[in-house]
Specification:
There is one protein chain. The chain is of the alpha+beta class and 367 residues long. The strands form 3 sheets. Strands 9, 10, 11, 12, 13, 14, 15, 16 and 17 form a 9-stranded antiparallel β-sheet that branches. A 4-stranded parallel β-sheet has the order 3-2-1-4, sandwiched between helices. Strand 13 and strand 14 form a beta hairpin. The longest helix is centred in the middle third of the chain and has 17 residues. The radius of gyration is 20 Å and the shape is globular. Bound molecules: adenosine monophosphate (AMP). Adenosine monophosphate binds next to strand 8 and strand 14.
Length: 367
């Protein structure tokens, strides 16, 4: 009772972790560089700081009984130092594995998990001399800091190789085989400080311009693929002894799952769990890092999640007056300004299929 949970990062994920933690009786402290961040309004304590300020991070951790993080780009070495003095149950390891695509993909391969073929590329000259080992089309991705399609280019033919120059000027990259996949899938799982694991139902995801647009659950996949995704998540959690929530994104091609990437935190494709499952991914995260028994992950009802990106958020005025809205839930993150493609919130459609959900979404959107 009255324990303080500290969350490094105050974006929408931090906000939704905070809301779950508060419902469970925690005092919530949040650290973020942005004084207008979504989580600030729902936190009991707010510390304004960059994520790489050791003094501020240290004094933040001192105020907390447990510390967690909502995103993977906090320098892992900083957390490695802090975890010796403070209670950061996840520690630096999940950050270490997920903030570098090369480390992440090699870890997956070492666990016997299939990935698209890839190669480390340090310079444009190396790209030119080695791209044929992967073949074209291929995807060139920066090994660090990429998200929502930032930091990657698709190289469809030899003329496109030139487009890789800019990425390689600033950073080492990986060159990946371009997979013509049937579906993109993801699984949210968790491992507690006691070593207990739990897996949510697999979600089927559609991206628009590399940003997640919809997640549908249950995914239209066989029981075997659903089981295989759980097996892979279990291998990663146990094999790397990770604690906390873990999201893994996959490509499905010819009946095989290819590991794409992982995130050591609740994930946009797991937002459906708030209404869809007995336990939400945010509550599960809190349970996992504070040493509680994990919650039941059973799907209560089919759900479709649609992200509200940028101006899409304006559809709410119209949508909220429709009859269909009785089975739609709104989540707005409280971001102060609308920017193009910015994740402003999401909608959860209960017991609608994807086609019906998109129809309602489009009928009410400004397009
Ligand atoms: P990522 O940042 O790796 O999640 O990539 C963003 C999106 O780009 C993915 O969700 C896919 O839609 C697409 N993508 C990434 N890597 C590949 C690949 N190797 N083959 C085909 N599509 C890819």
């Amino acid at each position: 009772m009255n324990k303080t949970l500290g969350i490094i990062g105050g974006g929408q994920l931090g906000k939704m972790i905070a809301l779950s933690a508060k419902a469970m009786g925690f005092i919530v402290a949040t650290l973020d560089p942005d004084p207008d961040c979504p989580a600030k309004g729902v936190s009991d304590i707010f510390v304004e700081s960059s994520f790489d300020n050791p003094l501020k991070l240290s004094s933040f951790c001192q105020k907390c009984d447990f510390v967690t993080y909502e995103f993977e780009n906090i320098p892992y070495r900083l957390i490695e130092g802090l975890e010796k003095k403070f209670n950061i149950p996840q520690g630096h390891k999940p950050l270490y594995y997920s903030q570098n695509r090369l480390v992440e993909k090699n870890a997956a391969l070492n666990l016997g998990i299939k990935t698209a073929k890839f190669l480390a590329i340090k310079s444009y000259e190396e790209l030119i001399s080695k791209y044929q080992e992967i073949g074209l089309p291929a995807v060139l991705k920066t090994i660090e800091g990429g998200y929502d399609g930032h930091g990657q280019v698709v190289l469809r033919n030899e003329t496109d190789l030139e487009n890789g120059k800019k990425l390689l000027e600033n950073q080492e990259c990986i060159l990946e085989e371009f997979l013509v996949f049937e579906k993109e899938l993801s699984i949210i799982s968790a491992r507690s400080t006691k070593g207990e694991t739990a897996f949510f139902p697999v979600s089927e995801n559609v991206h628009k311009d590399n940003i997640l647009f919809t997640s549908t659950v249950p995914a239209n996949i066989s029981k075997e693929i659903e089981q295989e995704a759980k097996k892979i998540a279990s291998k990663v959690l146990d094999g790397l002894s990770l604690i906390g929530t873990l999201a893994i994104e996959f490509f499905l091609k010819d009946g095989t799952l290819y590991f794409n990437e992982m995130a050591p935190r609740p994930h946009n494709s797991g937002h459906y769990t708030i209404e869809g499952c007995e336990t939400s991914q945010f509550e599960q995260h809190v349970r996992s890092v504070t040493g509680m028994t994990l919650g039941n992950t059973k799907l209560i009802q089919p759900t479709v999640m649609i992200n509200l990106l940028g101006d899409d958020v304006k559809l709410l005025d119209k949508l909220s007056q429709t009859k269909a809205f009785k089975d739609i839930k709104i989540h707005l993150y409280g971001k102060k300004s609308i920017r193009h493609k910015r994740k402003m919130g999401h909608l959860t459609f209960i017991n609608y299929n994807l086609e019906e959900s998109l129809k309602i979404y489009k009928e009410n959107n400004h397009e």
